Amino acid sequence: MAGTPKLMAENIAQWKPDLVFCHHGLAASNAQFQEKLRRSGIKLAVYLCDEPYEVGETALYSPSFDYVFTMEPQTVEVHRLSRLNRPPVVFYLPAAVNPEEFKLQPYDGRHVPALFLGNASLVPRPAYLKPIEKLIERAKIMFWEPPKKTSAQWVPLSSHPKVYSSCVVGLNVHRSPWITENEYRTRVRNRLPHKRVPAGISLVKSRPTEWGTGFYNDGNLSSDHVNPRFFEMAACGTLVVNDNQRSEVARMFPMVPQAESPEHFYELVRYYIDHPDEAEEIGNVCSSLISKQHTYRHRAAEVLIRAGFREQGAESLRLSLGVPEDYLTPQPSELLKARSSSERTGSSERWSPQFGMSSIRTCGSPRDTGSIDVPLLW
Q1: pLDDT tens column, 141-191
Q2: DSSP for 194-263?
């Protein structure tokens, strides 16, 4: 509708905000919308939550924002390079959760042995989840074909905490970030001449050996981030078994199970179903860590600090959230330095339950270690 972006900006400007924080940002990249806000002295920030799957598109419009936050550390440099002569104010900002909604729940009465909620059909999830459904009695895989919102099977967001708190083991397999075969044909091999390539991206040069779910991942970037599903499950105190393809899982939550293969995934799920006391202990530690460092309030505070508003309300933030240095997210250059010591899982070492238990008993204050995200047990 003509004029709508300008009218929206005028309404927002009446509130006289210091910063407008835009989720995803495609609609908010409208030139009229941004021009009106900037004339009122208002800064704009964007949070890109579908990276690297959409980076081939988001890197085209992210430079129009004053500040860029991305859920994926692998795309920070892409967005910085895409800004050309603009200030490189791009930051990695992980997912988070609202602990008032996703509350710690005891294990007594949990009746579902293993559970997945989401689109189970995305690569590589079927290879991990089908054996669970077949071999573990009463396991729930929700869903192979995601239901429509009008369907009786649809699980509204308000029901997610109850669902996540009903299981002994939560299942989390990150979707493959690699470009899809169809998008490789249309966006890379047969790319139209007028379709601009973002300055920070180099199109994948040869046919990939593996296809994924990255529909706009034109550079075929890998992925490190932890998906929101993990934070929501873990905040409920649920032990979550993960794949080991995301390095940020190992850095932020070294005590959680990370499987190197579908077979290993099944072994870990089976182990924690048979050892619910260990599952609950790890789940409690993860929930505590999330409440101290990974809530929406922590992320909102980080956005304000990164955008230069640190002095405004600094004392109240410190009293309610703790010292910022304890929850500010390490940026990619810091992550590379930390991984040699903090990344102890993956292809070089098979994750074991013994490692999980030792992790929750040996971690302490982040000031005593090299990692900002070491779990706090005090």
Answers
A1: 999 998 999 998 999 999 999 999 999 999 999 999 999 999 999 999 999
A2: TSPPPTT-----S--SS--SBTT-TT-----PPPHHHHHHHHTT-EEEEES--HHHHHH-TTS-EESSHH
The single residue listed with the structure tokens 């593996």 is: 210
Q: Please name the helix (run of DSSP H) or strand (run of DSSP E) that holds residue 211, with its range, or none.
A: none
Which of these, 118, 375, 89, 132, lies nearest to 256 by C-alpha position?
A: 375
User: Phi, psi at residue 214, to the nearest 5°?
Assistant: -85, 80
Side-chain-side CA neighbours of residue 208 (13 Å): 24
Alpha-carbon distance values, 348 to 337, 343, 351, 360, 374 (Å): 18, 10, 10, 21, 21
pTM over 0.85: yes
**Can you list the domains of the chain with their CATH numbers?**
4-92 (3.40.50), 97-177+221-306+343-378 (3.40.50.2000)
Q: What is the pLDDT of residues 231-240, one digit of tens each?
A: 999 999 999 9
